[in-house]
Fold this sequence. Notes:
Largest sheet: none
Helix content: over 70%
Shape: elongated
Strand content: under 5%
Order of helices and strands: HHHHH
Number of helices: 5
Low-confidence stretches: none
Radius of gyration: 17 Å
Amino acid sequence: MTHDTATRALLFAHGAAIAMGAFMVLTVVTGLYGGLNFAVDLIYLPLDGSQSITPGAAALLSAVSGGIMLGYGVLGWGVTKHVYAHDPQLGGRLLGAGILGWYISDCAGSLAGGAWFNIPLNSLFLALFLGPLLLNRARRSPRAA
């Protein structure tokens, strides 16, 4: 994968994180829980409608985690555009450390919380981020700014 393609792929991945975080926050702000309820029910298989986000603590934690996801996506977008695009070694280390920190802690928490199906869903997001980082041919030699 070329460096430009890897950079565009990372921007897409961070855009997806921004969109998912915004969706979570807007769900709580608007009180329209349908999509988020489906996602939570899916994470807690079987898909039977028994899991949902309700106003109160669950909604608060959904909004907060959505805000964190949105913020991480914005941060990752900036690191990709202003660091990784010019220095794939440094940018890759910064992005990779954050992505692995999220993945390990999120999967451990999901498992501990009984939401094992969140691990394969997290793995799809992980592939969006790690794929471009690992497949970038320019990763070993920084590009001139």
